[in-house]
Amino acid sequence: MAHDILIVDDEPDIRSLIDGILSDEGYETRQAHNSDTAIAHFRARRPSLVILDIWLANSRLDGLEILDALHREEPHVPCVMISGHGNIETAVQAIQKGAFDFIEKPFKSDRLLLIVSRALEAAKLKREISDLRLRAGSEAELIGVSPAMAQIRAAIERVAPTNSRVLISGPPGTGKEVAARMLHARSRRADGPFVALNCATLDPSRIEEELFGVEPRGDQPRRAGTLERAHGGTLLLDEVSDMPLETQGKIVRALQEQGFERIGGATRVKVDVRVIATTNKDLQAEIAAGRFREDLFYRLSVVPLRMPALRERREDVPALARHFMTRSIESSGLAPRALAEDTIAALQTHDWPGNVRQLRNLMDWLLIMAPGDSGSPIRAESLPPEIVSTAPSMLRLDRSSEIMTLPLRDAREAFERQYLEAQLLRFGGNISRTANFVGMERSALHRKLKFLGVHAEDRASGTA
Ligand SMILES: Nc1ncnc2c1ncn2[C@@H]1O[C@H](COP(=O)(O)OP(=O)(O)OP(=O)(O)O)[C@@H](O)[C@H]1O
């Protein structure tokens, strides 16, 4: 598949010059003239690489700020900066901020192509290293101390050694694939292959070839599909709801018979494969809408597992944040930095729409971007505004704060209400752990909450 390169420059001539050079080499290109269009393109589909001008006229953010914004969303997409008034300081700044390299205008097409191919190659190597790590099993552990995570880990331990099919549902980025790998690693098939097929990103017209493989055609040799490659191991059907209906029917038959024919042939291939599927859609609703086959649902969902959103288990945030920070330090080789208590507290109050994946990306970004001496703890003020702004507003007191308009007694109550609400949120509604942290007796905290009119659902204090 051709690499997809996003070109961000305010000058149309430069955009089309770069576009021409890259298209001639077979790259796919998209263009953006300012920060908002660049970010919209990036969100619509992650490009393989971004070429980013530092000075942009009529743009909300300049190139270095766009670099930050893009890396906050996805730090693994390489960015190459371009500047007309380039000086060594801007170059160093861009590279410190995580840009892959820097090119000055005017540039020769050979130089541009060399940097682009090096950036793509470096990104590919990084991906391969992380794939190897996945296969080595280091990504087959679900971190988290919440009761929900403990229950999921216990269910995985119980079901892994059986040959049961498992359907793992939950919002994007909640660890469904990690759970699938954990099931494989704990199964009797652990020495066999673990093969994943992502039904959402594959072209629907190619999905059957990928699954079942193809018989030799002309000078094309025989190609094994994912089912065959997973023989003796586990096949993960990732985002199974995106599988075309017709293919769903064929998968039902293949599961029933543990066998199938390659595309373009009649030879029966017999396999021994355990299938695990994931979905972030509600499959019952998909069945009702006629987009998912009920018989496939019942075949896949012998044991259902649901991964909760991160905001439903905020107790997991500190352990996950520290784990990803350690991983980031190991893989980047940068000096270790700890997360200060105020940073952890702010992370726990955030809602994490992108779930654990978003937290992981933020840790990669923070390690590179947080100001302060190497080795010093990372403080909450280093967090991007969208994370800090979800912290209760009155706790950041200044003269224009609403609390300043109240008499002391009301102000104290308002503060206590917000403080305790935030702490309860932080400890997932668990009264015992909140009381322990804020230094109150459990019963006294109960009375206080009642007096302040704070509704708290008292969850038992079970942890892993
Ligand atoms: N509990 C966890 N412990 C350790 N790492 C986790 C955990 N949950 C998620 N991750 C990490 O977060 C990232 C996203 O997880 P994963 O790919 O498993 O999510 P997913 O639910 O399959 O997402 P999607 O639906 O978008 O495919 C990965 O880097 C994974 O290693």
From TrEMBL:
Gene3D superfamilies: 1.10.8.60, 3.40.50.2300, Homeodomain-like, P-loop containing nucleotide triphosphate hydrolases. InterPro entries: AAA+_ATPase (IPR003593), AAA_lid_NorR (IPR058031), CheY-like_superfamily (IPR011006), Homeodomain-like_sf (IPR009057), HTH_Fis (IPR002197), P-loop_NTPase (IPR027417), Sig_transdc_resp-reg_receiver (IPR001789), Sigma_54_int (IPR002078). Residues 142-368 form the Sigma-54 factor interaction domain. Pfam families: AAA_lid_14, HTH_8, Response_reg, Sigma54_activat. It comes from the Bacteria. Keywords: Activator, ATP-binding, DNA-binding, Nucleotide-binding, Phosphoprotein, Transcription, Transcription regulation, Two-component regulatory system. Signal peptide: none annotated. SMART domains: AAA, REC. Residues 4-120 form the Response regulatory domain. The modification 4-aspartylphosphate is found at D53. This is Sigma-54 dependent transcriptional regulator. It comes from Sediminicoccus rosea. The lineage of its organism: Bacteria, Pseudomonadati, Pseudomonadota, Alphaproteobacteria, Acetobacterales.
